Amino acid sequence: MRDAQAKVNEFHRVFGLRAAARPALLECLPKSAGTVAGELRRLADRCRQTGDSRDGLCARLALALEELAEWAEAHAAGNLVAAADAWGDRAYVLLGDAVAAGLPAEAIFAEVHRSNMTKTAAAGFGAKPTKSDHFEPPQLEVILLSAAPTTNRKTAP
Fold this sequence. Notes:
Shape: globular
Distance between the termini: 27 Å
Oligomer: single chain
Helix content: 55-70%
């Protein structure tokens, strides 16, 4: 995970995005963060109500939304420890998605990073990087096909 964080740090540095030197909450308006957290929880409830016992996607989406709500609530409360806990839970759920779907997380992450580094910085400090003439989309099909057992290759795109 250290390598992945270093790559994201590189992306942030290259594109002028925030990269804190020490643990800190993100800037936010507490009332807005609380409102968004409530909406995320309502959406998580909808996911649970919509899915059934065979619907792994809805169950995983509900988990992801709950943890994202906790992240927002921690910021609204100004609680760095709770934010760190929520971040850890979010990372755990995200890696759990990869495990549940049989995705080779490290290889996918490395390829998405490679692709992201071909983007161009948008105008204005901290603006979202954009796709340009030099942008190279991630080549994920090869990664997915090489990760799939020979008998299961029909499920890969």
